[in-house]
Design brief:
Radius of gyration of chain B: 18 Å
Mean pLDDT of chain A: 86
Shape of chain A: flat
Order of helices and strands of chain A: HHHHHHHHHHHHHHH
Number of helices of chain B: 10
Low-confidence stretches of chain A: none
Shape of chain B: globular
Structural class of chain B: alpha/beta
CATH superfamily of chain B: P-loop containing nucleotide triphosphate hydrolases
Largest interface: A-B, 20 and 28 residues
CATH class of chain B: Alpha Beta
Number of domains of chain A: 2
CATH superfamily of the largest domain in chain A: MetI-like
Helix content of chain A: over 70%
Number of domains of chain B: 1
Distance between the termini of chain B: 20 Å
Oligomer: heterodimer
Structural class of chain A: mainly alpha
Largest sheet of chain A: none
CATH architecture of the largest domain in chain A: Orthogonal Bundle
Strand order of the largest sheet of chain B: 1-11-10-4-9-8-7
Mean pLDDT of chain B: 91
CATH class of the largest domain in chain A: Mainly Alpha
Strand content of chain B: 25-35%
CATH topology of chain B: Rossmann fold
Chain lengths: ~450, ~260
């Protein structure tokens, strides 16, 4: 409650400061009888508003972190707290209940021991809310007044405000970067914990994957954590089967669209192809599991492969390949279109046919871009989760038969995280190790792909 | 109507145009142009920007086909054969009528592969030795051999602008064409590189029928023996280069070569 009040206060006071600053700037303008100010009145207004709102907001953040512990301290030092159990679960619970009643979040306490604490909580909350409010007002007034007094006709308010905006923009970009770092840090942390229980060598090179969530939490059987079948399944489904589907189809459609298609047809087909990229992957998942997988199984039975699974790697891979077509196609399309038309004309003027020009000049020139597109597509495919969760199996088979059931890294991450075991258990932690490996691989693929694309851009400057 | 000087020497026309008009959609870019292009002389097309000289040049090897809205009327012949007749093989035509573009456009391949490209697609060389010969000969004719013979595997795009343009000329020569069309081949080059290209054109003269489009009247005067002046889609005047520059019959030609416009 306190933090949101302070937040609103910051906005309200900021608005007041804005109007005051603006009025003052306009007054300057009248005084100097039409002379020019160093900055527009609006900048003076924003300058004052920022000097009020930002300190109050910072204080609000600080206060919302600090005040709960201050409140707790004052409650614990009250005489009513002396009856509490010295430590443990019960003590925490009583304090929590009393706090909830005091703030109005709960109607009454369950445990009698918490009752006498309600009043001290109420008092402490009221006291510290008041202190916070007064402090915020003082801060706002002090810094607002200082800012206001700094306003002069020749005061460069604009540069100051622009600097503040720049800081805001910097902050925005830092949020994304810091989030990434946070994700990596948490992955690394959990992965290290897992590798403390299971030897990384066993994990990376073992060929048997069958974690047992029911086993003891302390001594995992490292021989059950061989991730090679998962890596193989991922590569087989995402990088081999899917690419066998996506690369030829994507490339051919890009060639058709850039070189042969009528502009009117192109304006239809290209967006239609891009819609394919907008289909939620869970829908592809249905399609794979309910339509494609049975078809493939029946087909396999028909040609005499009776061992064919209804959760075959082929079904998941083919549908994933279809999903990837737009990526390959649009990257290839862009890079073929980026080859200067002088190149094409040069070849045609030599008496080359259209297909010779495409094969010998356009594709080689566009190859870096095409390769980069394929690498991005692979990294997308091996990180893809929903299709394989729905269409691939959870059985870790190390097999080269596309009709066999196989599992992937992402499927196992889902399986491990949604399993029965606690978050501390090694089966759960193995999900982080898998995620970390996957993250490193896709990161490397993206990195290389972007480098390739950059080199290719320079080629035609 | 085109004014044609009457003192032109008789020469066999390698290419001929009769009442040629070129349209882009509804817009007429070239209006009723007739001209003979002999092998013995270099023919220059001059005229202000947008007068249609490049458009006309591109219709001589049907490069206008790559522009969907372009349409050609009239008759253009190569050795008396109409190149726009149905059943005409554009691929064969372009092998016989080569082209060099305004901006050097070597393929992003090695120097060797740039030259070998044409002979390979037209099946001109039986083996590696024969191909090597064609590459060397073409580079020699283009005056580039001495400069690049030790780095044939380097990328063609790594050469300087002038070398790139000579590479493109060598590439055009490699398929042994009968006509070479040059569309402002020096407009992207410095004076030294330009001088080398002009020298090269002199050397190629007589072996191939050469048509050069140029913005520079000095260049036309230096390299050509025949000049056609284009203005607003029409061919205004055609004659010996020396006559066009010293004794033009048309007022518009006079105005252009004296720098009154253009």
């Amino acid at each position: 409650m306190s933090a949101s009040v302070l937040f609103l206060l910051a906005l309200g006071l900021g608005l007041a400061g804005w109007m005051a600053g603006r009025a003052r700037a306009w007054a300057f303008r009248k005084d100097t009888s039409g002379g020019r100010l160093a900055a527009l009145p609006n900048y003076h207004a924003w300058y004052v508003a920022l000097w009020i709102a930002v300190p109050v907001l910072l204080f609000a953040v600080l206060w919302s972190v600090l005040s709960p512990s201050l409140v707790m301290q004052s409650v614990l030092s009250s005489p009513a707290a002396s009856d509490l159990p010295a430590f443990g679960f019960q003590r925490d619970n009583m304090l929590r209940e009393a706090h909830a009643v005091a703030t109005g979040a709960a109607p009454a306490v369950f445990s009698d021991g918490a009752k006498p604490l309600i009043e001290p909580f109420r008092e402490a909350l009221a006291r510290y809310n008041l202190i916070g409010l007064i402090a915020a007002l003082l801060i706002a007034f002090a810094s607002g007044t200082l800012a206001f007094l700094r306003l002069k006709p020749d005061f460069a308010a604009r540069t100051k405000v622009e600097r503040a905006v720049m800081a805001l923009l910097l902050l925005a970009s830092l949020v994304a970067i810091l989030t990434t770092l946070g994700i990596v840090a948490s992955l690394v942390f959990e992965t290290i914990r897992f590798f403390g229980m299971v030897n990384p060598i066993d994990f990376l090179f073992g060929t048997h994957w069958n974690p047992d969530p029911m086993s003891g939490a302390d001594n995992p059987d490292a021989s059950r954590y061989g991730a090679i079948p998962l890596f193989w399944g991922t590569v087989f489904i995402g990088a081999i089967i899917a690419m066998v589907v996506a690369i030829p189809l994507g490339l051919m459609s890009a060639i058709y669209l850039t070189q042969y298609a009528d502009p009117r047809l192109r304006s239809w087909v290209k967006p239609a192809l891009e819609i394919l990229a907008g289909v939620p992957t869970v829908v592809y998942g249905y399609f794979a599991a309910l339509t494609v997988a049975p078809m493939i199984r029946d087909f396999a039975h028909m040609i005499g492969i009776t061992s064919a699974s209804s959760e075959s790697a082929l079904a998941a891979g083919v549908v994933m390949g279809v999903m990837i077509i737009p990526f390959v196609s649009s990257m290839a399309d862009d890079s073929i279109a980026a080859v200067p038309s002088a190149m094409r004309d040069g070849s045609l003027a030599m008496g080359a046919t259209r297909s010779e020009t495409i094969k010998r000049v356009l594709i080689p020139a566009a190859l870096p871009g095409i390769v980069a597109g394929i690498m991005l597509a692979v990294s997308r495919a091996i990180g893809e989760t929903m299709i394989v969760v729905m269409a691939a199996s959870t059985a870790a088979n190390l097999s080269a038969n596309p009709f066999d059931s196989m599992t992937t890294v992402t499927v196992q991450i889902v399986a491990m995280l949604t399993g029965e075991a606690s978050t501390e258990h090694h089966t759960t932690l193995s999900a982080f190790a898998l995620g970390f490996v996957l993250f490193l691989v896709t990161l490397a693929l993206n990195f290389v792909a972007l480098r390739v694309v950059r080199r290719f851009r320079e080629a035609y400057e | 109507m085109t004014v044609v000087h009457e003192n032109l020497e008789q020469a066999d026309a390698k290419m001929g145009a009769r009442s040629v008009s070129v349209f882009y959609g509804d817009k007429k870019a070239i209006d009723d142009v007739s001209i003979d292009i002999p092998t013995e002389y270099v023919t220059a097309f001059i005229g202000p920007s947008g007068c249609g000289k490049s458009t006309f040049l591109r219709s001589l090897n049907r490069m206008n086909d790559t522009i969907a809205s372009a349409r050609v009327e009239g008759e253009i012949t190569l050795d008396g054969e109409d190149i726009y007749k149905s059943g005409m093989d554009v691929v064969q035509l372009r092998a016989r009528v080569g082209m060099v573009f305004q901006k050097p456009n070597p393929f992003p391949k090695s120097i060797y592969e740039n030259i070998a490209y044409g002979p390979k697609i037209h099946g001109l060389a039986e083996g590696k030795t024969e191909l090597d010969e064609i590459v060397e000969q073409s580079l020699r004719r283009a005056g580039l051999w001495e400069e690049v013979k030790d780095r044939l595997d380097d990328s063609g795009t790594a050469l300087s602008g002038g070398q790139q343009q000579r590479l493109c000329i060598a590439r055009a020569i490699a398929v042994d064409p009968e006509v070479i069309l040059m569309d402002e081949p020096c407009s992207a080059l410095d004076p030294i590189a330009t001088a080398k290209i002009e020298e090269l054109i002199d050397e190629l003269n007589g072996r191939y029928a050469i048509v050069i489009v140029t913005h520079s009247m000095q260049q036309a005067a230096r390299v050509s023996q025949r000049t056609a002046f284009f203005h607003l889609g029409k061919m205004v005047e055609y004659g010996r280069t020396s006559d066009i520059f010293t004794n033009p019959l048309e007022q518009r030609t006079q105005d252009y070569i004296t720098g009154r416009y253009g």
